[in-house]
Fold these 2 entries.
Entry 1:
Amino acid sequence: MYMKISNKFELSPKQLLIVWYAVAFIAISVIAYFAYLIGTLQQKNLLLQEDLRLLQIGQAETAKKLSDTIAIIDKNLNLTKSEQEELRGKLAQEQERVAAQQRHLDEVAGTVGTLEKLTYTDEELLQKYSKVFFLNEHFIPANLSKIPAGLVHSSKNDIQIHSTVLKYLENMLRDNNDPDFDLQVISAYRSFDTQQNLKNQYTVTYGAGTANQFSADQGYSEHQLGTTVDFTTIRTGTDLSAFEETSDYQWLTQNAHRYGFTLSYPEGNDYYISEPWHWRFVGVALATKLYNEGKHFYDLEQREIDQFLVNIFD
Ligand SMILES: [Zn+2]
């Protein structure tokens, strides 16, 4: 029996068997190769899966380590924060302690300053002196200065005043730029002896009664303090009785307190006849209080006045 493959080839059964074997061999070889290939790939896949698993484990470990580290850092940060807060608290306490010490020191310094001021401030400067209240005849101000010639009446050439009061007086006389303003000092510090001589002179001229009432005794104690000034103007000169009518006097009544001066003996006072020309330095605070309240120095109790002594030159 012949198997017809084509018109040209005709194989014998033996040849056909060989072909079959060959085909079977090739087929088995191909199948074996693919089987091998599949096996290799599966193995590689397994290896890769293993690698992946290991990688995942590694990742998880790394992530855990990282999170542990972050937790440690957080903890440290929190510790640092609480430490910082503690330090801040301590610092605030320390600052408060230092501030309290400073306040205490300031208080002590203030007390010392006040005591020092009072020690160096003559308490006589704010005492009431008149026919009723007497000043020791030996009292002499600690420091006296000559009033500049331009500020005193031409008939006088050597008028002295308490050295510290001088600048208040100068400011007062120089601050007014009104061309009609011609206020001048005609008398300021007078020693006990000078006063007595003056009194004798007045007594001789006017008789004891008139002299006592007019000028010999009146306010002499205040002039002995060195803080008291008698004013006049160029126009009224030595005629003190005309002073009250001047615009300068009106200006003094409205402005002298700003420089610490006050009118000692106003009209109707219980101590002397009215002396519009006679102004005493009592410090800006007290003079301003008197001005604001419409009062005069001798209206106040001595103990009320005394409270102003420490600040008399402020
Ligand atoms: Zn006077």
Note: The first strand starts at residue 3 and ends at 4.
Entry 2:
Amino acid sequence: MGRLDGRTALITGAARGQGRSHALHFAEEGANLALMDIGHDVDVCAYPLGSEEQLEETARRCRELGAEVWTGLCDVRDAERVEELVGEAAAQLGGLDVLINNAGVSSPTGLSNELSVESWRFVMGSNLDGPFYVGRAAANQMISQGRGGTIVNIGSTASFKAFYSNVAYVAAKHGIVGLTRSMAMDLAPHNIRANCIAPGSVRDDPDLDSRLLTAVAEEWDVPLDTYEGVFADYHLMGVLMEAKDISRACVWLASPDGDRVTGAIIPVDAGAISK
Ligand SMILES: NC(=O)c1ccc[n+]([C@@H]2O[C@H](COP(=O)([O-])OP(=O)(O)OC[C@H]3O[C@@H](n4cnc5c(N)ncnc54)[C@H](O)[C@@H]3O)[C@@H](O)[C@H]2O)c1
């Protein structure tokens, strides 16, 4: 028996990286899945985004684990498309119990006095507007079902601290904290819980097609192992996070074990914010 038997989870940014890891962990625990990703690159972003093929690969691996899976290509910045696809996913899968608001970007970076409006809007759109749009649509779906639900927003160490030349990312990830606490307050009467997991730096894993640390290292023109070393040192425990560390926390919050947890901002960061 899985801890998520009978639950249906929507995961954004599921083509690769942590989103793929969450999908695989949820499938192993018995959940059915709605998987979304943008599925194409965006010029302003310095690195390639997840592709349709990668999204289908995540879906294939989850089906192999026994999950029923629906996939949809969706830029979370597009509120209308989000509404349409959340409705479609719920109709296909018999409702929605869990949202993992995972999609996000770490590019472009830039100083607070220099970042272009276009760059600011891309990062804020993907990392804060998107989680609000998907969260709103998912919450209304859950309210209409009348059986409660749970929302997990993915923050970052940047939800607590500034990082040099990263104004839009830091502002958006701080915003996720406010979004989470507001959702927890507004949705508690409907037995819908909202929490935030704030990961430390997560190692890129070839099995998950992860790109984020590699992309940032390229943007800063630093070799990946040097960059990984800098971020490992940033954690009290001196190690990088693995995607599975974040997935296990998402499973816990989505399972009955998390039933009385709401409004919590939970670092899963090997002690980064305590250093
Ligand atoms: N990697 C890290 O070290 C780290 C640390 C802390 C927090 N995070 C956060 O974890 C989440 C997942 O990051 P990851 O490391 O797996 O990165 P990743 O780049 O490997 O995966 C992110 C996925 O989100 C998708 N995506 C991006 N913008 C989108 C949009 N507008 N609409 C729909 N899909 C979109 C991408 O296509 C990609 O498949 C992000 O929210 C990120 O900010 C990452």
Note: The mean pLDDT is 97.
